[in-house]
Each structure stands twice: as C-alpha cells, then as structure tokens.
Design goal:
Elements (H helix, E strand, L loop, with lengths): L3 H7 L3 E2 L10 E2 L1 H20 L3 E2 L5 E3 H7 L1 H4 L8 E3 L2 E5 L4 H8 L11 E10 L15 E11 L4 H19 L5 E6 L10 H18 L3 E5 L8 E7 L5 E10 L1 H5 L4 E2 L5 E2 L2 E6 L4 H12 L12 E5 L5 H13 L4 E3 L7 H7 L5 E5 L1 H6 L1 E6 L6 E4 H14 L9
Parallel strand pairs: 3-7, 9-10, 16-17, 16-18
Antiparallel strand pairs: 1-2, 4-6, 5-6, 7-8, 8-15, 9-11, 11-12, 12-15, 13-14, 18-19, 19-20
Helix pairs in contact: 1-9, 6-7
Length: 406
C-alpha cells in the first residue's frame, strides 16, 4: 500500500517545515515539475474546450463574502478577518465570488453565453489540525476552478461537458472514480433557504447524470451551501474516500450578485453559474496520482522522463549530447554517469523513470541507444532520433502507455 507522504519525501517532491506551519507543504524541484505540468495540462484542456483564463486576488473584503453567503454559511472554515486601513479583509475560501464580480464588471450580451471563465488560483481554508495530512488536506489550496455563466437552457449541456473533461483527465492520469455522488442539502441552517431553486438545480443535475450513463447515488448533507453538486469520488489505497472533482449548478449566487445579461428580446435575464473543477485541488490530485501509481507517474507527468546511462566514462560526453537533444525536444532528461555507481545500481535507482537509454561503446559509435522501459520491456537498440521521436510522440499523446507499436 502506497502512502503519498512517504513517497513525497523519498522522491524529493514535497515536504513541510514547522516554521511554515501545519497544512502548508512546500514543493521541491521535482514536485514543482509535476505540479507545473499538471497545471499546464488543465489549462490546455480548458482552452481547447472554450474556456478563457483569468487571475483574481486571494483577498477580498468581508462584504464580498457576506454578499456571496460564505460569511453566513461557511464562516467556520474561513480564516479570521484582517484589519487593513479600517476595512476587514479575508483570505478567500472560494473563487466563485471573484468570478461573479468579473462577470458583472461590464454589460454582457446573450451572444457571449456560455461564458466559460477558468482560473488555477489559491484559496485558503481553516482546517483543524487533526484532519491535516500530507497533500490531501491542506490550508493553502491551489484550485483548478471554473465558472460557466450561461442560460438555464445551456446549463445541462455545459455541466455534461464538464463531466466529459473530468473523465478524459482521469484517463490521462491513470486514475478512476470510485463513484459519482449527487450531493443534496441536509437539515440545519448550513444551506441557503430557497426550496424552489434547490429543486430546479437538482433536477438539472439529475438530467446530466442520467444522460451521462454513470451510476450515482444521492446523498443528503453533502451539498454546497448554495446548491447541489455532482461529486466525483476517489478512494485511496487505505480505502478512505474523498472528493476530487465537482460539477455544480447554482441559481443562488447570480441572484445575490445581481448578475444579468441582455437577451435577444433586449430585456435583462439572470444567468446560471455552473461551477466545475476538473482535477479539484492540485495538491489532492498529485497525492492521489502518487498513491495510485506508487510514484511511477504517467510518462507525460514524470518529473524525469528519460535517463541516459553511459556504460563508461568514454561515453559520458555522448550521453550529455543525447540528453541535450532530448531537452531541446521538450523532454525532461538527465544523465546518470558511472561516477554514480555500477550500471545495475543506476538502473535500479532510475526504476521509476519511464525511459532508460543505455549507451555503450558500440551504441556511441553508431548513434544508437539500448532502450529499456520502466516496466522491464526492452524495445531493443534504436537510433537516437527514432527513439526520441517515439518518446516525444508518447508523451504528447498523454495517457499511461509507455510505448506505442512502431
């Protein structure tokens, strides 16, 4: 059973320090590569799906969160206000209020809808010390978030498109959902009181789930305070379940913020907000991928994708030339030379690297590489250019496969 905290330390991906504080991990160079690659993957997928990216500040006035409803319904999970210049400022617990303000920053036409606004942004939650753990529960979160402003008639299609993005990302990451949950409100004062809007949003999400064909179960007490949501659940090797991705349909915040667009009839109309997160928090996503694969990341996500292994000192110069050629092609390559131990020891040390290229005297003279894959397969001796082309092709294709047939 793999524990991402142990793997993170062993592989030099992330760590913590008491002076930074609990629930505030820092990312080491290899971990930063994984995080950056995952973030760019999400941005690319979102751009291809018609999203536009924004940046918004991690602070907001208390009045902003009073308007959104977070202050009344989510205060226990927020950090206390900071007094700045006579105003109370808060670290944001969510990005949606900021995106609502961006939407209403100018007049909007129905021709702009659906308007898909995405951000990989920081948010902060005052988690109790007892629930913090590695990357799965942290206090500073990098969230893959987006809000789609659309008409009620577009909401089902947009939410279904978000589910499709989630499914594709899971396939590329080599992970799977353990179940889909329709999260509904429970009792108490945690949820905004508007039964008609709750019923309407729930009916739309049921339509999305039924059309998608995925099995799901409705669970009370797990909704967001402003609306129901689809939660895509994952399970770690110890059997603990958590939410990674979400899709929500929200009629509440557009009303609170007075959002509107001008329809084809020239009148004002209220948009719907579809909240969606493809991979959820970057921290939790990396933790789950680490545990799912035991540190053997899919080739496109691996911090080092290729290690070149010169057999002797005479081949080191050629090995560095191959690594530079790989780097110029966008691959992450390193050289592990004989000063780091025997060839067998170096191969074992690089066991999690997807591609290993052994370079002996004959290979160096003939422009060849003896190729080994992480899973033990040996595709044979290949010309350098062909090998790098095939690795690059596999990396660009994403997914978990190590090698394609010639």
């Amino acid at each position: 059973m793999h524990d991402h905290r142990r793997l993170g330390r062993e592989l030099g991906l992330f760590d913590t320090d008491p002076l930074m504080g609990a629930g505030l991990p820092y990312w080491l160079p290899d971990g930063a590569v994984v995080r950056h690659t995952l973030e760019e993957y999400v941005r690319e997928a979102e751009r291809a799906a018609g999203y536009r990216h924004v940046y918004s500040p991690v602070l907001g006035k208390r009045e902003l969160y009073e308007l959104s409803g977070h202050w009344d319904h989510y205060r226990d999970d927020m950090y206390p206000p900071m007094e700045l210049g006579g105003e109370q400022m808060l670290l944001r617990p969510s990005l949606c209020p900021h995106h609502a303000l961006i939407f209403r920053s100018r007049a909007r036409s129905h021709r702009e809808l659906p308007l898909r606004m995405a951000e990989l942004g920081g948010m902060y939650r005052s988690e109790r010390s007892g629930v913090l753990g590695g990357l799965t529960r942290v206090r500073a979160i990098q969230l893959n978030d987006a809000h789609i402003f659309c008409t009620p008639y577009q909401a089902v299609e947009e939410a279904a498109g978000a589910l499709a993005l989630i499914s594709r990302a899971y396939a590329d990451l080599g992970i799977r959902a353990s179940r889909h949950r329709l999260s509904l409100p429970g009792g108490g004062g945690k949820y905004v009181a508007d039964p008609a809007l709750w019923r309407r949003a729930t009916a739309l999400l049921r339509e999305v789930l039924d059309a998608s064909g995925v099995a799901y179960e409705a669970v009370e007490g797990e909704a967001a305070f402003y609306g129901p949501k689809i939660d895509v659940q994952i399970t770690d090797p110890a059997g603990r379940e958590s939410t990674l991705s979400t899709v929500q349909i929200d009629f509440h915040q557009p009303e609170r913020f007075g959002l509107h667009h001008i329809g084809p009839d020239g009148a004002r109309h209220r948009p719907v907000m579809v909240h969606r997160s493809v991979i959820g928090s970057v921290e939790r996503a990396v933790a789950h991928v680490l545990e799912e694969h035991g540190g053997a990341f899919p080739p496109w996500l691996a911090p080092v994708q290729l290690v070149v292994l010169p057999v002797g000192a005479d081949q080191e110069e050629r090995a560095h030339a191959v690594a530079r050629e790989a780097t110029a092609l966008g691959l992450r390559a390193e050289v592990s030379g004989p000063d780091e131990g025997s060839l067998g020891a170096r191969i074992r040390r690089a066991r999690l690297v997807p591609y290993q290229a052994v370079l002996g005297a004959r290979e160096a003279d003939d422009g060849l590489l003896a190729v080994r894959l992480r899973d033990g397969r040996r595709p044979g001796v290949l010309p350098v250019a062909e090998f790098l082309r095939r690795v690059g092709q596999r990396v660009r294709a994403r997914g978990t496969a190590l090698w394609d047939p010639a």
